[in-house]
Every structure is written in structure tokens, then in C-alpha cells.
Design brief:
Blueprint (H helix, E strand, L loop, with lengths): L6 H7 L1 H12 L15 E5 L7 H14 L6 E5 L12 E6 L6 E6 L13 H9 L2 E6 L14 E5 L5 H8 L5 E4 L3 H8 L10 H6 L2 E4 L8 E6 L14 H12 L6 E4 L7 H14 L8 E4 L18 E5 L2 H12 L6 E3 L3 H31 L4 H8 L21 H11 L5 H11 L1 H15 L9 E4 L14 H11 L4 E4 L5 H8 L12 E6 L15 E9 L13 E4 L2
Parallel strand pairs: 1-2, 1-4, 6-7, 6-9, 7-8, 9-10, 10-11, 12-13, 14-15, 14-16, 16-17, 17-18
Antiparallel strand pairs: 2-5, 3-4, 11-12
């Protein structure tokens, strides 16, 4: 066949060719199975190059499909890359299959193809069709259907507190390429040691994960999940350097038909405005045609054994409804909780920053109340317990806000809001309140020293906890360390105890090591900055001098563990 070929006519010429195309499509990871009457309507939507005369051929195609044994239980969308069509140009045909209550629906978008003198063989036709396959969309509600082959590889870029749980989660159903630029981290993971202390050597050994620093390994992945940090700069502006570097690296190793999913927290629009152009330029591929993007905000809670990658409801969004559907089935295969389809990538991005900004605002409210009640000499804890008896009272408590999420993400929304011409006063005020708590705690320490007439020369202060939250070793943006730094700057004698951190790292940063709890000297003031579960409050008396002060920031220690001659202060 030569000039002005009509793929529709070609497909309808023989049932063998139809089956051949179906088999080729199946090899790309889309399942083609025997038809089941229970599934109802079966749709085959083809956006084809053809002339208006293809209308007659379409009926022939329907007859061929019905007469052959080709039964398709999924929808294939094949897009015309050359022309945009309007709904008026769409030709929709239906034919009820004899002997069943099911319908085959064929949607054709007729248009002239560029003339060619090249013979169109079965292979060439299949290749042309495969270039335009966006996503198989099931018309069946059966959860047993396979929409993403478990044989397909999943790549995960960034193997930190977020990326590693994602890699381990996907490894239960897929072979995973776990990529990170940190060769020391990769070496530890290969040896069965998790630097983030989230997974045991046994779990890592059982996982189908190939840990590597070779980005070329990503070329064989059907989907690449990006889970790199998105911190802020010294001026509290979004820092996309890690995300941009990851996008460049992925783009240089991006194979056609790959779906790239970003899990890193960003402001609304960043995935499409910042990441997509980098991917396109580095790969020389076109997003939406040659490769596809999606967004699924991470919700990993480090140190939380109950709320994990598998059990936390998952938001997903793709650049089109078809990509969203593909991602839905991908994540649904490994997530036990609900997988929620957001209406767009921007909506999913916004949802993530709202989640953490809401917490930041509510904690700021509690911190503000604690300072008000301190002036009024009213115990904040008692107030919150009383208020909590109302059914719709939100149970937030005062405390330090650090880490790479709650104390960072609001700045992304603040930045985007200002670009849009709106000054988000509530968001900025909440950030100011929470950032001021380090100075508030430090000033409280100084007030207690003066009030109780401690001698500066003999004074000993102990900090319990150096991480940004309980039961993990992550010290990024830790406000406990900010307090330590301020106390050392004042020339005070401070000892630190945190079993979760590397003692050498702390010493390199601040000149003091983390001391094991039994080896701590007795102190005049003990500041409980991070109440790890490993701390035994029954032993607290062993590290206190006879007349001392316990600054229990989060009210973690029951009063029964506080000696009678010790002042128990808390927010």
C-alpha cells in the first residue's frame, strides 16, 4: 500500500492484522484478555489519519472485530500528533455485539495523512500507533484487571526519608531501580544499612531494589518517581536546585513513553513550569506526546510506624485524564489506603502545601496562646485540656516547628502568592510566630537563671534531643540545634544527649558530642527539646541537681516524674 493510506482500511483488511496489532500493544504493558460479558461496554477509541470515506470502512472494521476472536477489555487512546480536532469533526459509531449485552464503541477522527510513497507494513503501522498510545483506560470496575504490568521497572530518584519508603513500597510488585547521587548512601543500602533508620537489613535484602548511582539504569523504567529535597534558601525563598538537577539527570536518560512522577513538595505550577522544560530540553522529547508527567505529593511521616507509604491515602494527578488513570492503577497496586485522583497537577501540588501550612498555622496559634497565658499565669496545658472537651476542638499543642516540611512548605506558597500579587499575611505571621519560639525558649532559660540566682560559672545545662522531631535521626532545620547554638553563643556550659544522632556529626557542627544518658553530668537546667521514646523519664532524677529546673517544651514528662524541689516549666 502506498500514497494516502488509510490505517483504518488497513486494519480492517484482515483479522490477522488486527490480532497482530493487539499483540504488539499488549507487549507494551497493556493487558488484552478474553472478553467478559459482565464488563459491559468495551471502547476502542482510535484517533486515526483517514479521509471522510473511512466511515464505510469503520463498519467493515467492526464486522472484522466481531467476526474475529479479538476481544479487548481496555480502552486505547491513539492521538493524532499533526492536527487538533473539534468535537464536530468526531465520528462516533456503535455496534452491539450479537449474542451479548456488550457494546463496542469506535471513535474516529478523520483527517488526511501526509502523502508518502513508503509501503506501510504491519510493523510500521504498529510503531505509528504505539507512538500515540497515551494510556489504557478500563471500562470495567473490576479491581482484578491488570493495567500496569508488574514486570515493568519503576525508578526512584532520591533515596532519603521519602524516596526509600517509596522504593520499598513499589518493590513489592515491581523491580525497582533506586538511584541516588550519594555513593556512600548507596554503598550502605547495598550492605543492608538504612542511613535513615527506617528499614531493617532483612527488609532491604528482600526488596526487589537495584541500588545504583548509574543514571543510565533509569532508561529501562516505565515510570520514574522523583523524591528529592525541596528546601528553602537563607532568605526563605524556594530552592529548586535539587529538583532541577534531578530533572536534568532524568531528561538525559529519559526513554520515550516514560511517565515521570514528582513527589517533592513544590508550589502550584512548579512541576509544569520548572521541571517539564528541563526534561524536554535534556531529552529532546515532547511532554504529552513522547513522555508524560504526573504529581503525587509525598506524605511520609518519618518515625511513624502506623502511617506509612502503604497506609496513608495517596493523591495522584497526571497531565491528562489518561495519565491520571495510569498513575491511579500504578499506585493502587501498592497502596492499601485510598488513592485519590486530583483534578490537575496544580491541585495536587496545592493540596500538599496546604496540608503542612495548615499545621504551621495551627501550631502558631497554640504558641501564641502559650505566650499569652504565660503572661496571665495560666497553665496552657490545662486550658487546652478543658477546651478539648468540645467535640469540634482541634487538638493542637504548642511547640517547636522545624524539619523539611512544616517549617519549609509555607514559604513555597508564600512565594507563589506574592508572584501572583497577593500578600499572604496570615501565612507570614504564622511563620514569624513559630520562628520566634527559639528566641522565646532561650530568653526563658536566661530568665530562669536570673530568677533562681544560678551562678554562671558553675551552671550546667542539658539538652535532651537534637533532631527536628521525635524518634528519628534527621537534624535538618532542627530548632533544638538552634537553641543549642544560641546557648553556646551565650557562653553557657551545655551537654547534649540524643541517641538517634551521629555524635561525630554534632561535634563537627557545634564542638560538642552527644553524651549517652547514663553518662550525663547532673545539671541545673534540663531542656527537653525532643522527647524521644527512648528517654526513660523515671531516670530523669539521676541527671538533675538537688535544686533544678526542667524546661519541658512539649509537656512530655508526667508531673509524677518531677522531683519536689524541681521547677517544671512548659509552654
Amino acid at each position: 500500500m502506498t500514497t494516502n493510506f488509510d490505517p483504518l482500511i488497513m486494519i480492517s483488511e484482515t483479522s490477522q492484522l488486527s490480532q497482530y496489532v493487539a499483540q504488539k500493544l499488549a507487549k507494551t504493558g497493556f493487558e488484552i484478555t478474553e472478553f467478559d460479558d459482565k464488563h459491559g461496554v468495551v471502547s476502542i477509541i482510535l484517533f486515526l489519519y483517514g479521509r471522510q470515506s473511512a466511515k464505510q470502512s469503520s463498519f467493515e472494521l467492526l464486522e472484522k472485530i466481531q467476526s474475529s476472536s479479538l476481544k479487548i477489555n481496555q480502552l486505547f487512546l491513539i492521538r493524532d500528533e499533526m492536527t487538533r480536532y473539534t468535537s464536530d469533526e468526531e465520528l462516533r459509531l456503535q455496534s452491539v455485539m450479537k449474542g451479548s449485552n456488550s457494546t463496542i464503541e469506535l471513535v474516529i477522527r478523520p483527517h488526511s495523512i501526509l502523502e508518502t510513497n513508503t509501503e506501510i507494513t504491519g510493523d510500521k503501522l504498529v510503531n505509528q500507533l504505539l507512538r500515540h498510545v497515551v494510556h489504557p483506560l478500563s471500562q470495567s470496575t473490576s479491581r482484578k484487571e491488570i493495567f500496569v504490568n508488574e514486570t515493568e521497572r519503576i525508578g526512584v530518584v532520591g533515596l532519603g526519608y521519602v524516596g526509600l519508603p517509596v522504593a520499598v513500597g513499589f518493590s513489592e510488585k515491581h523491580c525497582v531501580i533506586g538511584f541516588d547521587v550519594d555513593d556512600k548512601k548507596i554503598a550502605k543500602l547495598k550492605s543492608g544499612k538504612d542511613p535513615s533508620e527506617q528499614f531493617s537489613a532483612e527488609v532491604l535484602a528482600q526488596a526487589q531494589i537495584e541500588f545504583t548511582t548509574d543514571a543510565k539504569s533509569l532508561r529501562n523504567c516505565a515510570c520514574i518517581v522523583v523524591a528529592v529535597p525541596t528546601p528553602i534558601s537563607a532568605s526563605n525563598e524556594p530552592d529548586f536546585s535539587y529538583l532541577e538537577a534531578a530533572s536534568q539527570l532524568i531528561g538525559e536518560n529519559l526513554a520515550p513513553e516514560t511517565v515521570v512522577v514528582y513527589e517533592s513538595t513544590v508550589y502550584p505550577g512548579a512541576t509544569e513550569e520548572i521541571c517539564c522544560p528541563i526534561l524536554e530540553n535534556a531529552s529532546n522529547l515532547k511532554v504529552g506526546k513522547d513522555f508524560f508527567i504526573g504529581y503525587s505529593p509525598e506524605r511520609i511521616n518519618p518515625g511513624d510506624k502506623e502511617h506509612t507509604f502503604k497506609t496513608i491515602p495517596k493523591i495522584i494527578a497526571g497531565q491528562s485524564v489518561y495519565v491520571t488513570e495510569w498513575l491511579y492503577h500504578l499506585y493502587q497496586g501498592v497502596i492499601e489506603a485510598n488513592v485519590y485522583k486530583a483534578s490537575s497537577i496544580k491541585v495536587a501540588e496545592a493540596a500538599k502545601v496546604v496540608e503542612n501550612t495548615q499545621r504551621d498555622i495551627n501550631i502558631a496559634f497554640m504558641n501564641e496562646l502559650s505566650r499569652i497565658f504565660s503572661q496571665l499565669e495560666i497553665p496552657t496545658k490545662d486550658v487546652l485540656e478543658a477546651a478539648g472537651t468540645k467535640w469540634n476542638f482541634l487538638p493542637f499543642t504548642p511547640g517547636l516547628v522545624g524539619g523539611h516540611c512544616i517549617g519549609v512548605d509555607p514559604y513555597y506558597l508564600i512565594h507563589k502568592s506574592r508572584l501572583a500579587g497577593y500578600e499572604p499575611n496570615l501565612l507570614t505571621s504564622a511563620r514569624e510566630v513559630n520562628e520566634s519560639m527559639v528566641d522565646h525558649i532561650t530568653n526563658t532559660v536566661m530568665q530562669q537563671i536570673i530568677q533562681h540566682q544560678f551562678s554562671f560559672n558553675d551552671l550546667k545545662i542539658t539538652l535532651l534531643g537534637a533532631t527536628f522531631k521525635e524518634n528519628i535521626g534527621d537534624m535538618r532545620n532542627s530548632k533544638a540545634l538552634s537553641i543549642l547554638e544560641k546557648l553556646l553563643h551565650l557562653g553557657l556550659s551545655v551537654q547534649l544527649c540524643d541517641p538517634h544522632v551521629d555524635s561525630g556529626t554534632v561535634k563537627d557542627m557545634y564542638g560538642i558530642s552527644s553524651t549517652p544518658f547514663p553518662e550525663l553530668e547532673k545539671a541545673d537546667i534540663v531542656i527537653i527539646t525532643v522527647p524521644h521514646n527512648v528517654f526513660d523519664w523515671g531516670q530523669l532524677n539521676n541527671v538533675l541537681k538537688e535544686k533544678s529546673i526542667v524546661l519541658d517544651i512539649k509537656s512530655a514528662v508526667p508531673s509524677s516524674y518531677i522531683p519536689d524541689n524541681t521547677v517544671h516549666w512548659h509552654l
